[in-house]
Structures are given as C-alpha cells and as structure tokens.
C-alpha cells in the first residue's frame, strides 16, 4: 500500500514537440493534486508517492477527462496515448526531500498528431456517362474525417467513396479535405474527371408558382424548374380544368378551394412527376377594407414618403389622394411633397365585391 504524503513532482522535459510550450525552466514541482500542464489541454498528475516502496501513481488526462493511469517503479517506463497524443514517461528517481516526497520523471515523447497532407487517386478518370468512379484517400498523418467535392454539385464524407457522373461533356474538378485534431488540408485536382457522351438521364421534375394564394379570379404563373433537359411537359392544375402541355403556363383559377398541382416532365430517357398537395389556395372574394401606412410621416421639404397598402380582402385597384392636389393608382406609391403643411391622405380600394375608403387627417407634416 502506498504511503500518501505531501508530494513534490520534479519533471525533466526531453524532446518536447514544438507545439507544446512550458515555463522557462524544465524542472517542475507539484504537490499532491496539482497538475503539470503539457499544452493542448493535456496534463499529468502525481496522485500518490511511496518513497519506501519506490513507487509513484501517475494519472494522464485531457481537459479534466481521465485518459489513463499507472503505478510505476523507479526506472520503469510508461507509454500511453489517446489517438492524438502519445505520452512516454520514465521514472528516474523517487526520493524524500527536505519536506516533501519527490518523484523525478523524464517525459520522453509527448507528440501531437500533425496536420494531414491531403492526397487521393481515382479510377477511372475518364469515360462515357453514366461514369462510375472509385476515389481512394491517400492522405498522410492519419486523418479522421474527409470531405469530398466531386465538382458536379455533390459531396461525400466517406473515406473512399464511389460516385457516378451522369452529365456528359464536362471536365470535373475534384477536391478532398482531410482533417484530424491538428487541423485540415485540401487537395484539388482540376479537370480531373472527364465525362464524354452517353445517354442523357431522365428529368427530375420541379416547379414553382406565383402567387400561390388569392381570391377569385386568381391568375397564377407556373415555372418549370426541372433538371436534365425535359422536352415535354404536362400540368394538372387540380381544379377540373383541362391539362396543359405549355412549358411555363399562366393559369386562371375561378373555383375557390385548395388545389393540388401535378406536373410531369419528360425526355427520351424517361419521365418524372412531382405533386404539390393543397398548393394553390383560392378564396371567394369579399369586399375590401382599406388600410395603409406611410414612412416617414413628417420632415422638411422636399419630403419623399413611401405609402404601403395594408388593405384586406384582396383589392384589385387602388386610388390615392395625397392631400396636395395629386393622386396615384399605384399599389404602393412613393410620393414627394414639395409644399409645407399638414396633409390629409385618402386611399380607396376596390374589387369585384365593392370598395372601401380610408382617410388619415393631417397625416403627413411637411416643414
């Protein structure tokens, strides 16, 4: 059993990695429970010492988290590592000082992992689409993670991925970033993968629409966003109307409800369909209620004021009276006041169900 005393630890540091720094002196003394900082969050602690039995208990940790420990005799060497940091300790002497028990050790080889040097190969590097390519990581210094960019918009974090290029007529630049705890490094091979003519892939259907909600009658512009060059299109607007084969159709909804849109894109390689449920929401029109804001509402002439319609009920027309003798039918007009005074502003909005007027008295102050 170890005799527990107040412990003094003297450390002789030999061959330290350049990334580890210490105080000016290479001799370090520690009392029981104190730790010697080795840098990068690593430390060793003398837990107990037995001068009579010539043994010492050392513990190796990082950021307060236990890694390893051992009870060592004088002259014994201890090796430990956590995958990034290799520690080799030799106990050179255990003796009784004037006050405290002392252990002297030699830190032979603490070394942090070096930053990787990224490198890779691929096979084949040319051929017809679709071209399957196997990539092989050949990086040095033991990377622990990888990020591949294949140059066609796709990536991978596998160490040795296989990737299929589907587009012909392109030379693809490939990059690999290799990383470990010491850092990362990137290798780039420009125009590395050459893909020549081959069958075009079938489309991947996609589309957008604007607007996607509003009251009857609602005009909606549909826009094809498909990839892989479709040559024909079919649209089902979900309102019982005839389908359309136009590339980017403009469709008017005259029935209220939430409408599902189905779109199919086709080329020589095949077809693809995308469905958006309850995508277009059409409401029955109601009489609008006029409302608006302005910014700024005061200032010196000439005063530029941005008016913003806040009306509800989906108005289809607007009439603004700015109080200085001028009007506008713009939805959200920008107006410049050139005369001083307190101006009253009126907005009248209309739709098929009626009209509404909002008046703001002395709303704009021009100094």
Cα shape: elongated
Percent of residues in helices comes to under 10%
The assigned structural class equals: mainly beta
Rg result:
38 Å
Characterization of the model:
The protein is mainly β and about 375 residues long. It folds into four domains: about 110 residues, Tick-borne Encephalitis virus Glycoprotein, domain 1; about 80 residues, Immunoglobulin-like, CATH 2.60.40.10; about 80 residues, Immunoglobulins (Immunoglobulin-like, Sandwich), CATH 2.60.40; about 80 residues, Immunoglobulins (Immunoglobulin-like), CATH 2.60.40. It contains no helices and 32 strands. The strands form eight sheets. Strands 1, 6, 7, 8 and 9 form a five-stranded mixed beta sheet that branches. A five-stranded mixed beta sheet has the order 11-17-16-13-14, with no helix packed on it. A five-stranded mixed beta sheet has the order 26-32-31-28-29, with no helix packed on it. A hairpin with a 4-residue loop joins strand 3 and strand 4. It is elongated and about 105 Å long. It starts with 6 loop residues before the first strand and ends with a strand. About 25% of the residues are buried. The N terminus is likely disordered.
């Amino acid at each position: 059993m170890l005799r527990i005393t107040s412990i003094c630890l003297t450390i002789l540091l030999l061959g330290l990695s350049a990334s580890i720094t210490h105080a000016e002196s290479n001799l370090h003394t520690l009392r029981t429970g104190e730790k010697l900082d080795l840098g990068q969050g690593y430390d060793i602690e003398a837990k107990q010492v037995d001068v009579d039995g010539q043994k010492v208990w050392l513990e190796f940790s990082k950021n307060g988290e236990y890694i390893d420990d051992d009870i060592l005799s004088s002259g014994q060497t201890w090796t430990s590592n956590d995958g990034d940091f290799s520690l080799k300790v030799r106990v050179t002497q255990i003796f009784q000082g004037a006050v405290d028990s002392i252990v002297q050790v030699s830190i032979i080889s603490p070394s942090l992992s070096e930053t990787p040097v990224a490198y890779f190969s691929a096979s084949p590097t040319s051929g017809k689409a679709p071209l399957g390519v196997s990539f092989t990581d050949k990086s040095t210094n033991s990377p622990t993670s990888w990020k591949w960019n294949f140059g066609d918009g796709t990536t991978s974090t596998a160490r040795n991925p296989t990737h299929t290029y589907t587009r012909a007529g392109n030379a693809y630049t490939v990059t690999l970033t290799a990383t470990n705890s010491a850092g990362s490094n990137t290798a780039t091979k420009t125009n590395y993968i050459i893909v020549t003519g081959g069958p075009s892939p079938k489309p991947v259907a996609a589309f957008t629409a604007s607007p996607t909600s509003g009251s009857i009658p609602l005009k909606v512009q549909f826009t094809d966003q498909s990839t892989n060059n479709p040559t024909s299109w079919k649209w089902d607007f979900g309102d019982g109307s005839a389908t359309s084969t136009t590339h980017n159709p403009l469709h008017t909804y005259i029935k209220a409800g939430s409408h599902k849109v189905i779109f199919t894109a086709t080329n020589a390689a095949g077809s693809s369909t995308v469905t958006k449920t309850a995508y277009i929401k059409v409401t029955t029109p109601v009489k609008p209620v006029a409302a608006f804001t302005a910014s700024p509402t005061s200032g010196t002439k000439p005063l530029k004021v941005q008016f913003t319609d806040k009306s509800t009920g989906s108005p289809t027309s607007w009439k603004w009276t700015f109080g200085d003798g001028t009007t506008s039918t713009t939805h959200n007009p920008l107006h410049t006041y050139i005369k001083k005074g307190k101006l009253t502003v009126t907005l009248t909005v209309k739709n098929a169900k009626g009209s509404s007027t909002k008046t703001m008295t002395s709303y704009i102050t021009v100094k």
